[in-house]
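Structure tokens please, single chain.
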Amino acid sequence: MSSQLTIGLDFGSDSVRAVLVDVENGEILASCVQNYPRWSEGKYCDAPNNQFRQHPLDYLESLEVVVKGVMQGIEKERVIGIGVDTTGSTPCAVNKEGIPLSMLPEFADDPNAMFILWKDHTAIFEADEINAYAKSHGGTDYTMYEGGIYSSEWFFAKILHTLRMSESVRKAAFSWVEHCDWIPAELTGNIDPLKMARSRCAAGHKAMWHESWGGLPPEEFFAGLDPMLAGLRDRLFKDTVTGDKPAGKLSQKWADRLGLTTNVVVAAGAFDCHFGAVGAQIHAYDLVKVCGTSTCDILVAPQVNNCIPGICGQVDGSVIPGMIGLEAGQSAFGDVYAWFKRLLSYAGDVKIATIEKEAATIPVGTTGVLALDWFNGRRTPNANQKLTGAICGLNLGTTAPMVYRALAESTVYGARAIIDHFKAQNIPIRNVIMTGGISRKSPFIMQMCADVFNLPIKIAACDQTCALGSAMFGAVAAGHYARVEDAMEKMGAGFDAEYTPNKEVVQLYEELYQRYLRFGRSMEKEGL
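Here you go.
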């Protein structure tokens, strides 16, 4: 008898990817990636003003392509489950029936009616208001389990900003949904915003949901923050589910559209980095860094006895049910290198790989160039999306490889600052696991991480750990495994590389890292 299979769907910033996985041994039988067509054309975005929006049809059309892509030649009856992860916080306004407003004719080209991508920073002012009100309203600080600082990248800041910016959306919006909740809801036909499965991961890390105060903050908190939010709480959700629970079974519509059966169980969704940590086989006090355009850092602990300041939340069950999931990250990582490539491209075709190769030959600490990695603000420690990137120490002899090396160092120093922050809060880091495209494409940067962290770095063998993690959750939701830990053990791909610190440069990097911290404090003090 043929083995059973699950499909893992990973909705990233630029594309969706699918993997078809054997639930018995984790073998990836097929994979497929599809870029979002409208997003690829730059539609609905305004980068200079930090606006990044995505049309839901990009998700649905691309979803169909990748699932059909991995199912070629496969008996549909073998597929028992689908898991879904997405970027986040990426919310969208929906009507009473749960339809995203941008799927209605009157809002088809309105960016305010679309999914607001995680890296959209148009709500900086609203985030500041939420933080000020949370500290001053005289009651519970509802940001306390979110690191104490609410970010413009998160759920309610984006909602409030959109309500203020668009009267038409404000009048038409009944509720709001996260991307990771909407995809499973759409696939199962359960799009009623009052009934759809809502992710514990998304709600806990980005929407101030916590069991100790009965779910979301109370109505009086939202109404006191801004009357535009009055009444919204009752149109959102109270309960949440972890990713190992079913959102439902595949609807007939989507079974026909994807060439699958209605027996397929669709797991509740979560954010990409959280499922990616599971795909990388995370254990207690491992730090998993998902390195892409940005980074998301995930750590799990059996218990945490205090609120950790300056991170992106601590949520029971957001990664592995029964454990506390801790999230941190950098607002730009690969995006910093992409910016540098775009900058140089004005002089003609640029091969970053060639520049990196030359940068790797430059002795540590000899360039005099120092950079800050805050090109998209700072996520952790202590979110501040107003901050900007910076480069100092330039002279007429500075070369492109020297600047590239400084930029690479800055991203690694930013990663080191997160590790130090956890350690300062008595959260040990036992292992560092890297995953994502950069971890596999750049030995230069991975070795630099080992040297700057002064820790060994393991590289996840699977190059699609987020999608693999989603497939694992699909297997658990479908009942093939009782626990996420069991799925990780059987379906995990292990590690295929390890970088150890080069003791000859560890102290040199330590001195440069301290200089980076001083530079950062100076720039932040000046509000730059």
